[in-house]
Amino acid sequence: MAPRLLVYGAGGHGKVVADVARSxxxxxxxxxxxxxxxxxxxVWGLPVLSWERLLRERASVxxxxxxxxxxxxxxxxxxxxxxxxxxxxxxxxxxxxxxxxPTARIGTGSVVMALAVVNPDAEVGEGAILNTGSVVEHDCRxxxxxxxxxxxxxxxxxxxxxxxxxxxxxVVFPGIAIGAAVRVGAGSVVNRAVADGxxxxxxxxxxxxxxxxxxxx
Length: 217
Fold this sequence. Notes:
Layout: E1 4-8, H1 12-23, E2 27-32, H2 36-41, E3 48-49, H3 51-56, E4 65-68, H4 73-85, E5 93-94, E6 99-100, E7 105-106, E8 111-112, E9 117-118, E10 123-124, E11 129-130, E12 135-136, E13 141-142, E14 147-148, E15 153-154, E16 159-160, E17 165-166, E18 171-172, E19 177-178, E20 183-184, E21 189-190, E22 199-201, E23 206-207, H5 210-216
Parallel strand pairs: 1-2, 1-4, 2-3, 5-8, 6-9, 7-10, 8-11, 9-12, 10-13, 11-14, 12-15, 13-16, 14-17, 15-18, 16-19, 17-20, 18-21, 20-22
Antiparallel strand pairs: 22-23
């Protein structure tokens, strides 16, 4: 019998996570989201429960684990903590087409999407997103609640700190260390270390000065 699953997050990212979970053999029974409009309309004919409703009606989803379907790194970490504090089981889901080496380690609550590759002896922390077609090469270290966007590539033994977001199609050279809470722009090529909290863009990637970053947000 297929394990029952809820996805926390009913937006676009949550729907992709739900599709990954179905590919992995889970029985999707609904979503959790605090947006009233999503709760009213549902998704794919399945219910969308607010957090409060989930707690009230917990018996109706008894035995269901939860996958993290929130794209924002900090928000996903808060959801993870909330679920664990309430006693829910948070699971890792991997698309059937993803390739994960037997010696790679994937943290609880992570999602490995279609065509993603995780090569030997790589380590991925809990709550990470390895998005469509992303590549984590051998011996990489990927922190907690990181988001590797579609088609980005980490070269062998690269390191990415907690809550960092690597944009679509970006490339990180082998052995390069990127700090925590960094933002790497789409299509960037990172060929040198990046300190915590910075935003880098371009080929090669360079830091955006704080005043420019503030104006562009």
